[in-house]
Known about the structure:
Bound molecules: 1,4-dihydronicotinamide adenine dinucleotide
Family: Belongs to the UDP-glucose/GDP-mannose dehydrogenase family.
Number of helices: 19
Pathway: Nucleotide-sugar biosynthesis; UDP-alpha-D-glucuronate biosynthesis; UDP-alpha-D-glucuronate from UDP-alpha-D-glucose: step 1/1
Strand order of the largest sheet: 3-2-1-4-5-6
Number of strands: 14
Structural class: alpha/beta
Active site: 262 (nucleophile)
InterPro entries: 6-PGluconate_DH-like_C_sf, NAD(P)-bd_dom_sf, UDP-Glc/GDP-Man, UDP-Glc/GDP-Man_DH_C, UDP-Glc/GDP-Man_DH_C_sf, UDP-Glc/GDP-Man_DH_dimer, UDP-Glc/GDP-Man_DH_N, UDPglc_DH_bac
Mean pLDDT: 94
Binding site for NAD(+): 30, 35, 86, 122, 155, 265, 330
Radius of gyration: 24 Å
CATH topology of the largest domain: Rossmann fold
Oligomer: single chain
Amino acid sequence: MQVAIIGVGYVGLVSGACFADLGHTVRCVDRDEGRIASLRAGRMPIYEPHLDTLVARNVAAGRLGFGTDIAEAVRDAEVIFIAVGTPARRGDGHADLAHVYACAREIAGALQGYAVVVTKSTVPVGTGDRVEHILQTLRPQASFAVVSNPEFLREGAAIADFKAPDRIVIGTDDERARAVMRNLYRPLEAGTRILFTGRRSAELVKYAANAFLALKIGFINEMADLCEQADASIHDVAHGIGLDRRIGARFLQAGPGFGGSCFPKDIQALIKSAQDLGAPTRIVETVAAANEQRKRRMARRLIQACGGSVRGLTIGVLGLTFKPNTDDMRESPALTILTALLDEGADVRAYDPEGMEQARALMPEITCVPDPYAVAEGADALALITEWDAFRALDLPRLRRRMAGDVLVDYRNLIAPEAAAEAGFHHIGVGCRATPPAPRARLARARSARRGARIGTPLAASPA
Ligand code: NAI
């Protein structure tokens, strides 16, 4: 089949490459000329494991091409995907649909013959109606259907998720469009449940799924706080509840709060839509507020471990992206934590396997170094913020020897506390007991706290 994909970001590029790999002929278009030039030169504009090989293979086979001309891509396509960004609208948190509607207008101008226009972008319930209205108004004679086909792939595992999803949701009441979409996804049919729904339901499935996953994370984080106060272990509690099949073990890892390009903005958009429709989602509102507070409290956890002030201290940071195996920094907890540390007068030195370029653009004040051991050099404290596999097997004694202090705040519970203690770290995880600081380090911290109190702003104690 001939497929056009508008928007060559994480979703559009992965979808385009995967559809091509399934045998379709795919034209990916983006208004960002630099992005297209880079792809044409064989350079990936984003980091996603194995994406470069997949793209190269399908370009070489003549099934995948890139361009900037939407009309040209749309003209011959049987299926046209809109996969552009839907960020939070500045000021009110609603999803900003300007890019989606701009695509709809461009598509309207180029439609020839019957085509299925599919919103793959995450959009609020009712957006498909509006896209349909735009197309109908601009091209009353055109023959088309508007379908919702939300995407559930996870960055870092996007290709596997696209090719073997838990389900494919297709929202349309149009029989012809249903047949076209079934044909498109036929190569995946054997191993995947294809769920046909109404268009509005499909739009809501995506938001409801993200809100539910966020809720699980928010819940386990709250339990982690409780464990810390109750001298219990979040590992045991999460394991104990996760074995219940009604709950399930996934998304029960306590941490610094969720971030990323989807959860925070999708939850806000759901909250706004629900309020507009007169059916406010109180639970989701609470999850969103608790998560924002948590990210802010996480910086304080480190500051307190450093004796109440980080002014003039060097804080080494391991991991910047919102999760491993991506270069995506959007809404990463590292942004909130590092901004607070910088505001409190710390020097921040950081390493991330893929995210340093994006991080530097967002926080020019941080110093990026080439490896974890350079992060530790002379650092008063370390903060492990993203659970990259590469950090699992760090040589802890080597890290510790390079440091001036002994604090290791492990926001992902990646390092075994016993191993950290053995290497001489004062290890502070999430939802579990901290290992005690070495007596010498305790003294140094008290001195640093006194210094901080003299030259810096004293910090109120908070139960971080
Ligand atoms: P992105 O920001 O990585 O890419 C969007 C692309 O669209 C950019 O390259 C931009 O230049 C292009 N674009 C914007 N307006 C355009 C226009 N009028 N014409 C042509 N190109 C245009 O976005 P990402 O992360 O791929 O997300 C796309 C959509 O998919 C969003 O609605 C997002 O919520 C949703 N989604 C994202 C997932 C993710 O893991 N990133 C997962 C599932 C859904």
